[in-house]
Amino acid sequence: MPLHLRPISRAEHLAFVAARPSASHMQVPSWGDVKPDWRAESLGWFGGDDRMVGAGLVLYRPVPKLKKYLAYLPEGPLIDWYDADLSERWLDPMLAYLKQQGAFSVKMGPPVVVRRWSAEAVKAAIADPDARRLRDAEATSYEPRAFDVADRLRRAGWQQTEPGGEDGFAAGQPRYVFQVPFAGRSLDDIHRGLNQQWRRNIKKAEKAGVEVVRGGHDDLPAFYELYAETAERDRFLPRPLSYFQRMWTALTTEDPDRMRLYLARHDGDVLAAATMLVVGEHAWYSYGASTAHKREVQPNNAMQWRMMSDAHQLGAAVYDFRGITDTLEESNHLLGLLRFKAGAGGEAVEYLGEWDFPLNRLLQRALNLYMARR
Question: Taking 50 as the threshold, does the pLDDT of residue 344 lie above it?
């Protein structure tokens, strides 16, 4: 049965998300408020009985001096990705609508898992001199339907965005993440899943008197001070403080638990801070920051364990550490972060990645050239 697509209200969009076990935090209406340089629109797919069966948040980025847009659906849309008629029923109506709105290119990130590697498999891959990237190592499990989805997208004219840069991170959202499954597990079971170093560090932080507390909007400058230090140390471009203030206001207005801030303190000093995002049964460690001062009291492990404990109490089915590098070489400065996340147990997860559909090939080539020069 054919589906029709139309714009929907924030309330309709939120109701659809609330009825699902989980959805990306980038596919809720408030995420559009976090991105003022983009125009946001909520879209819904409807069946013959006019019942909503899919939804997506589209962000439109204008091209200077032209009434044309890049249309982006980060980690979405929320549709039936395994439908045999994926293009005809779901994606073609979306492309037609976005073209009418002036989009010259569409980018999306199907929330479809391809492969998983257990923490043990990740550890073995790091130790294997022949494994240069995570995808060189044997996966613990595969999702065969994901390969069918990829084939359908390619046949329909979609182009997969390869992970950019030597560290495996793409320019958009991460293709490789690390997740700890919570569903059906007690907190004690999750604690037993931590490696010995994690458990030791949590205990060490407790003995040293590290206190992990929840913060609010007024604590964002303290978080930001550590975040700026982390950006300099780890060689990435920091977002401005106003970005996090806007994120806090937008997300907590939509849902008081959508965004949380945690601070790890020791003798009056804030040593680490992090944000956690929650949608349904999915909790994300979003942004983290720490100082090199007093690292010996292990504030990061203590903070993560508090966040994991709170996420479990909220009913989360998965705790998501977000992006990891898929590069396993010791020279990579991000390998330490992969080791840290793998120490929490759980699994590395590969998603289908981001895909582009050029509606105007000339403008698409110009965009690709611009991105390559950045």
Answer: yes
